[in-house]
Amino acid sequence: MTTFPTAQAVRTTPEGLLWEPSERWVRGRKGEVTVVDSRHPVLVWEPGVPVPLYAFPRTEVREDLLRPAKNPPTGTHTGSRIFYDLEVDGELLANAAWTFPAADLADHIAFEWFRRVGRGLDRWYEEEEEIFVHPRDPHKRVDAIPSSRHLVVGIDGTVVADTHRPVLLFETGLPTRYYIPREDVRLDLLEPTDHHTGCPYKGTAEYWSWRGASEVPPNIVWSYPDPLPAVGPVKGLLAFYNEAVDITLDGEPQERPVTHFTGTL
Questions:
Q1: Model confidence over 194-226: pLDDT tens digits?
Q2: Is 234 in contact with 182 (CB distance < 8 Å)?
Q3: DSSP letter, residue 184
Q4: In this structure, what are the phi and psi dihedrals at residue 263, rounded to the nearest 5 degrees?
Q5: Alpha helices of 144-222 — where are they, by DSSP H?
Q6: How far apart are CA 169 and CA 180, in angstroms?
Q7: Are 24 and 37 contacting, i.e. CB atoms less than 8 angstroms apart?
Q8: Which end of the chain has the least Cβ crowding within 10 Å, N or C?
Q9: Please, are residues 130 and 124 in contact by the beta-carbon 8 Å criterion?
Q10: C-alpha span between 129 and 123 (Å, rounded)
């Protein structure tokens, strides 16, 4: 008998890989061909990489579609030496899959995610939900909570947003993000851009830039027009990078956080 909640430990390999079994049913497709259909996947974290990927038992992978890699990038993926090209309907994807060197994972095959242009599968699913960018980390939370706190956003001394109805988004490892109804944002001071990003927890975001001084980084405002169900309250609301604007919350100026986004803004 299993008693919940369980404290299933993440396992560590001598190579520095972290891994744990997942109970999710995971499928990966290339075109109309299902390449992976796994009810026993494992999540793997490579050293220095903050997001996980999946590896699958060989019996749950279409190994008949795999070919020994012609030009394997030996040594990548934590010293992996065995790589595969994937051939589906006459299309060959170089180095699309590999086996980790760890003995614990020797009977598992990992795949490049579809964000790797030309190397990954087209679609991935957990149960019946399509997932994007990378597998979701079960140790990470994302909570979108409506609030009545007074939020003011300023850029170069100009108030760009003023609201008493923000949605606060709490995401593990990131500063709180404040999502604001469009009616409470000076949209006339912002300009839409062609920039888009994808998040496995929230969906696909569209962006705006500040119309004013050029010292302000581009794409500092974003919105999820069709967010994933878990963060439904942020639908259509606008958020600003705390790292690049002045935020006052309930009358208290907030310090600009330093994150991995800081150097890219």
A1: 999 999 999 999 999 999 877 889 999 999 999
A2: no
A3: G
A4: -75, -10
A5: none
A6: 11
A7: no
A8: N
A9: yes
A10: 11
